[in-house]
Automatic annotation (TrEMBL):
InterPro entries, per database record: PLATZ
Region (Disordered), start-end ranges: 168-217
Organism whose genome encodes this protein: Arachis duranensis (Wild peanut)
Protein's UniProt name: Protein RGF1 INDUCIBLE TRANSCRIPTION FACTOR 1-like
Family annotation (Pfam families): PLATZ
Length: 217
């Protein structure tokens, strides 16, 4: 396969079994193997490319590029904020699960989509929520092998755009919070809501019936 379209570690990621108990740290609380090292799996001859646990990361992959795999309905997913830093995920359907945007690693079996479904995966025919081409990273990989009209490799311009998008998103979020805070402050104690007496008039008072000053007590 053309390494210009697919990084060498991707197929191993899609074939790796996750969430087995670590052989070394099986008695620990966080012993499930849900980590994957991109650096170790760039070399096909590396024997340190299996899934590993939280404690193995600290001891064997401390300075490596690592992604964490998660589970949704017994299927492996990865957070978009992690995977988009290393892969071009364009064309792959994403989902929001537990307030996090994720995508699935591999195809999930389902009955064939009925008629009238507006969006389906080009490879497995799974119904999609939005107009994407693929339901998972695995289906996009198959599409690249068949047609070569997509890519997983990020170029420098895309990396720069992702960085700028992150900065812009953070600025927009901060601006929105500040604007909301300003609106709340205006609603509670703005000059518009506080009565201000009119300035004294310089015009002379018209003569009328004199008023006697009140007697002192």
């Amino acid at each position: 396969m053309d390494s210009m379209l697919v990084p060498p570690w991707l197929e191993r990621l899609l074939q790796t079994p996750f969430f087995n108990v670590c052989r070394i740290h099986g008695d620990a609380a966080r012993s499930e193997c849900n980590m994957f090292c991109l650096d170790c799996n760039n070399n096909n001859n590396n024997n340190n490319g299996d899934a590993f646990c939280f404690y193995c990361r600290s001891s064997r992959h401390k300075d490596h590029q690592v992604i964490q795999i998660r589970r949704s309905s017994y299927h492996d997913v990865v957070r978009v904020v992690e995977i988009q830093k290393v892969l071009d995920i364009s064309g792959v359907q994403t989902y929001v699960i537990n307030s996090a945007r994720v995508l699935f690693l591999n195809e999930r079996p389902q009955p064939k989509s009925g008629k009238g479904v507006p969006h389906i995966c080009e490879i497995c025919g799974r119904s999609l929520l939005d107009p994407f081409r693929f339901c998972s990273l695995g289906c996009k990989l198959v599409g690249i092998k068949r047609n070569g009209d997509a890519s997983f490799v990020l170029d420098d311009k895309i990396n720069e755009a992702l960085a700028m998008e992150g900065i812009s998103s953070r600025r927009s979020s901060m601006s929105s919070r500040n604007h909301h805070q300003e609106e709340e402050e205006l609603g509670e104690g703005s000059p518009q809501n506080i009565y201000t007496p009119p300035p004294p008039s310089n015009t002379r008072r018209r003569k009328g019936i004199p008023h006697r000053a009140p007697f002192g007590s």
